[in-house]
Specification:
Helix content is 68%, strand content 2%. The chain is mostly helical. It has a single domain, classed as Fumarate Reductase Cytochrome B subunit (Up-down Bundle). The protein has a two-stranded antiparallel ribbon.
């Protein structure tokens, strides 16, 4: 049996350092993707808008792949138990909230990628790696996919907001250490 490296083991009641890194990296990437998406959505067709769209695509693709890594890590590393003081309904809500977040981590970027494909604008990740188009070029489809992508992005933003409010409630009101499971790694 191969020993688990010390760097991937968390103190009791905390997430592993890898899980903490993936959590905060994705949190920042999701915020950045949302801000870039909003800031360039109403710009006229200029080089600045094209740059913004490319940055948005690159962030989305990064979120997609980092989410896959996070999911694989999560499936192979059991998360810490909930605090004993947390009511069962809150534990169930947290479980379903996390599941919904994971689903959104994948479908929001996928719908954005599909939108770009339908527009006929190939995504070239970081300007280096051309990604395949996976829907045919179709203006009506592109418009529909953009609407779905935007709706899903707002849904993700709402879920993230609820997640943050719940974490702060546990930290400031319940004082049950829930936030500390993902905040500190030492």
């Amino acid at each position: 049996m191969t020993p688990i490296p010390a760097s991937s083991v968390a103190p009791a009641g905390r997430y592993t350092p890898v899980a903490v890194f993936l959590h905060w990296f994705l949190a920042l990437a999701i915020i950045a993707g949302f801000v870039v998406g909003l800031s360039m959505s109403d710009l006229p067709p200029t080089p600045a808008r094209v740059r913004g769209i490319n940055y948005h695509k690159w962030i989305g693709f990064t979120i997609l792949w980092m989410s896959l890594l996070r999911l694989l890590w999560r499936l192979s590393h059991r998360p810490p138990s909930f605090p004993r003081s947390m009511p069962a309904w809150q534990q169930r809500a947290a479980l379903w909230g996390h599941r919904a977040l994971y689903v959104m981590f994948f479908i929001v970027p996928l719908f954005g990628w599909a939108h770009s494909s339908a527009l006929g604008f190939r995504t070239v990740y970081l300007g280096l790696i051309p990604l395949p188009d996976f829907v045919p070029k179709d203006k009506a489809l592109a418009e529909a996919l953009l609407n779905v992508h935007a709706t899903l992005a707002w849904t993700l933003a709402t879920l993230v907001g609820v997640h943050v409010v719940a974490a702060l409630k546990h930290q400031l009101i319940d004082k049950d250490g829930t936030l500390g499971r993902m905040w500190r790694t030492s």
